[in-house]
Write a structure and sequence with these properties.
The complex is a heterodimer of chains A (552) and B (221). Helix content of chain A is 24%, strand content 13%. With 552 residues, chain A is α+β, with helices and mostly antiparallel strands. In chain A, strands 7, 8, 11, 12, 13, 15, 17, 18 and 19 form a nine-stranded mixed beta sheet that branches. Chain A has a two-stranded antiparallel sheet with strand order 1-2. In chain A, strands 3-4 form a two-stranded antiparallel sheet. The model of chain B has no long low-confidence stretch (mean pLDDT 86). The chains are: A alpha+beta (552), B mainly alpha (221).
Chain lengths: 552, 221
């Protein structure tokens, strides 16, 4: 009996200690990251000395007002740019942009605003049915220009920063426990955007580190040369905007309308080009004019630079999500509580979720060999189109043809998954997943019918009331994480049977098909010749006489 | 008539022949590798070697063409009908019965009619095909246009490949036929030493002894 009591006592003690430790973890003061390394600048203004910035700011909007008291066109510029509008009129005629499309990750913004718009470059856009300008949303200057490193936004605050007092448990857009932001310090620190400014949103798209793009992860805050030859701190130390050059707060480089084949190159000496292409620096014949370089230059009309120079993506130790099955979401544990499984161990030892009751099943991959396809830069979305539910739905279609003058072979991350669609209209369905206070949000209530009905309503769509799940694929052009030249693909990676471009090239590629019709004809000719010689030899031997005489 | 050892292959022609032989071997080895038949060399280095060997061969060919026309040697390669049938009959029949080859090498004509026709075909059809397609292949960047280049490349590459197989077949027959007639060593030796045993008329012999004594090997004994 005494023994039994000892055991119970020990268990209670252990529980108390672990609970205390947990409580301590929750109460630990979250600390902001240190200030990022300064970016070389030719600016002639020290913002910390400006009177207009030497005050206490109560809200982010107040900081913006201070900014535009001098930068009096900046707000107008940014409010017409995609970072603010989340709206993009595509060359294909479709209206794209985050505000409109359904993707293969969290699906849609409508109905999930405050969570999704946590990364909006403005303060308080919480309704997709109106534009942020109509909603009177002020642009957020600091999210891009803060150089103090301690500015951030909360993960569910529609773009607002965590301010003192921060509600316990609040997290930032990168998933860290939130600290109170010092707006004055941030305002006085402003400068050109660094990798951290862009990365705090773009590295965490899709709800976590490198979930979405595959070639944009937290590794790029301070990458090695092997991961990114341009951004390496001990190398060129590029920021994002070294390539994504800016003009009036609009940036070169688009996933919706990509310059898949840049025929302008460096342009005329001294001419300014607003292009994020490799060619805008490296020109269209980038390899040296020697016997090897000339042959490599032969490829640039059909093969994108990225295809050889980004041999794998999700490099440097952070995996990317490659599969997301929403249809299995909602399974609860025996106690009726949301559950998770973490069966993928990343190379840094971290276990990543492979199942969440909120989101379904996932797969992850590191050092991923891309999917290759002809691409002319034009992308069309299946959003609001009638789909064929018996086939795999391409959430975004990448256009391009082998004989098209505008197309080249590009590398892509191919995201696969299963997503909801309306069985009445055969259109991809919008879903309401985030909404801690609603009785329809899937992540709170685990009820698909309610979540989809609410999502369709939020998006202003007609809904038949019936849904099912369909296999989907989505394509993400791979263009970051350019490897050093020594790590570029070898010729044999593609010029081989079953090479990387097997089946998609549709152009003559030596080494890929020795048994082509002409190859077989040649082999037949050669073998018949050998056969003829063989018969000739046999007949000479059978003839019993030496063929001719050797006069020596 | 006198049988004399006469220099039939001057130094340049032998250098041309053997350089060509080595380069063609390299080109066939690397080329069929690039086509995917083997992977004994990595693709990149194989491309470099193939290109360099082709450029060396091209240089030799420029010299050889010049030499053929300035020395009049080009006439050796003009095919003739006369004796062609006899030669074909010999290879197809006579050789099995131990007959003597019907063609005797003469001073101004070192190839038998069948040989001359073969070389003529090589020089006029097959070599231009492989050179032309190879140079177009190599210089793709300089002529490729946006439209149609993909199809042109397909045609060019297949012409190149087919010509390569024809040359491979030629090499097999060429080497094999060295064993027919006077025998392998007797056939290879002139291309090494330059001298071959030729029936000379007394006039030819007298001419050579007087005007080109260096082309005659002194009589034995």
């Amino acid at each position: 009996m005494r023994h039994y009591l000892t055991v119970v006592f020990a268990l209670v003690l252990a529980a108390v200690i672990s609970h205390a430790a947990q409580a301590q973890g929750e109460n630990a003061t979250p600390t902001p990251p240190p200030a990022p390394p300064p970016i070389p600048t030719t600016a002639t203004v020290d913002h910390s000395k400006l009177k207009v910035l030497q005050k206490e700011f109560a809200t982010g909007t107040e900081v913006t007002q201070a900014c535009i008291s001098c930068h009096n066109s900046a707000d107008d510029q940014i409010m017409h740019a995609i970072h603010f509008t989340w709206n993009y009129e595509s060359d294909s005629g479709q209206t794209l942009g985050k505000a409109n499309v359904i993707n293969a990750f969290c699906g849609n913004v409508a109905g999930n605003e405050a969570r999704c718009t946590s990364c909006h470059a403005g303060y308080g856009w919480d309704d997709m049915s109106v534009t942020p300008a109509e909603a009177g949303v002020a642009p957020d200057c600091l999210v891009c220009h803060d150089r103090s490193g301690q500015y951030t936004k909360t993960s569910t605050g529609a773009g607002n920063p965590p301010l003192d007092p921060v509600k316990p448990g609040t997290t930032t857009i990168t998933g860290a426990l939130a600290w109170p932001v010092d707006l004055t310090k941030a305002a006085q620190s402003v400068g050109k955007p660094g990798r951290d400014n862009c990365g705090n949103c773009h590295f965490y798209g899709g709800g976590g580190d490198n979930v979405k793009h595959g070639d944009l992860s937290s590794v790029l805050y301070a990458p090695s040369k092997e991961v990114d030859v341009h951004m390496a701190q001990d190398g060129l130390n590029f920021t994002c905007s070294n390539c994504h050059v800016e003009d009036q707060h609009s940036w070169a480089g688009s996933r919706y309308d990509t310059v898949a084949k840049d025929v302008v190159g460096r342009g005329k000496p001294g001419a300014v080009r607003t292009a994020a292409t490799c060619e805008s620096c490296h020109d269209s014949d980038p390899h040296p004019m020697d016997i090897k370089g000339m042959k490599l230059n032969d490829h640039t009309d059909k093969v994108a630079c990225q295809t050889c120079h980004i041999p794998e993506f999700a490099r440097g130790g952070v995996a990317t999500k490659t599969f997301w099955d929403w249809s299995t979401a909602g399974r609860l544990d025996a106690a009726g509580k949301p559950m998770h499984e973490s069966n993928f161990i990343q190379s840094d030892g971290q276990a990543l979720h492979t199942y969440l009751s909120t989101k379904g099943d996932f797969e992850w991959e590191e050092d991923v060999v891309p999917h290759y396809a002809w691409f002319n830069g034009h992308v069309e979305y299946a959003t609001d189109e009638v789909i064929d539910p018996t086939a795999t739905v391409e959430v975004n279609r990448i256009n391009g043809t082998a004989d098209g003058a505008d197309s080249r072979i590009w590398p892509f991350k191919r995201m696969e998954g299963r997503q909801a669609y309306d069985t009445g209209s055969n259109k991809l369905a919008y879903s309401h997943v985030w909404g801690p206070t609603t009785d329809t949000a899937f992540w709170t209530n685990f009820n698909w019918p309610k979540a989809i009905e609410a999502g369709m309503k939020a998006a202003g769509q007609e809904y038949s009331g019936n849904f099912d799940f369909v296999d989907t694929q989505m394509y993400w052009p791979i263009t970051h994480m350019v490897a050093p030249a020594k790590d570029a693909l070898n010729c044999g990676s593609c010029h081989a049977e079953d090479g990387r471009l097997d089946g998609i090239a549709a152009v003559y590629m030596p080494g890929t098909d020795p048994r082509s019709p002409v190859g077989l004809a040649g082999m037949a000719l050669f073998l018949l010749t050998v056969l003829g010689v063989g018969i000739h030899i046999i007949l000479r031997i059978v003839g019993g006489r030496k063929g001719g005489t050797d006069h020596g | 008539m006198a049988r004399r050892f006469v220099k039939v292959y001057p130094r340049f022609e032998r250098l041309w022949h053997w350089t060509q032989m080595v380069m063609i071997m390299i080109l066939m080895f690397t080329g069929f590798g690039l086509n995917g038949l083997h992977s004994l060399l990595p693709f990149g280095p194989a491309v470099m070697l193939h290109t360099l060997a082709a450029l060396v061969l091209l240089a030799i060919w420029i010299f050889a063409t010049f030499w053929l026309f300035t020395t009049g040697t080009w006439r050796q390669f003009i095919p003739q009908i006369e004796g062609l049938f006899k030669m074909a009959r010999f290879y197809a029949y006579g050789v099995f019965r131990g007959e003597e080859p019907p063609y005797q090498k003469i001073f101004w004509r070192k190839h038998n009619p069948l040989q001359a026709l073969t070389y003529f075909g090589l020089k006029v059809v097959v070599f231009p095909a492989i050179w032309g397609s190879g140079l177009l292949y190599l210089t793709y960047n300089f002529w490729a246009a946006d439209e149609g280049s993909t199809f042109m490349l397909y045609v060019i590459a297949n012409v190149h490949l087919l010509a390569a197989y024809v040359i491979a077949a030629f090499v097999v027959i060429h080497v094999y036929l060295l064993t027919v007639g006077h025998g392998f060593r007797a056939h290879v030796r002139p291309m090494v030493t330059g001298y071959d045993c030729i029936d000379l008329t007394s006039e030819q012999e007298a001419y050579l002894e007087t005007n080109e004594p260096g082309r005659l090997m002194p009589k034995k004994g």
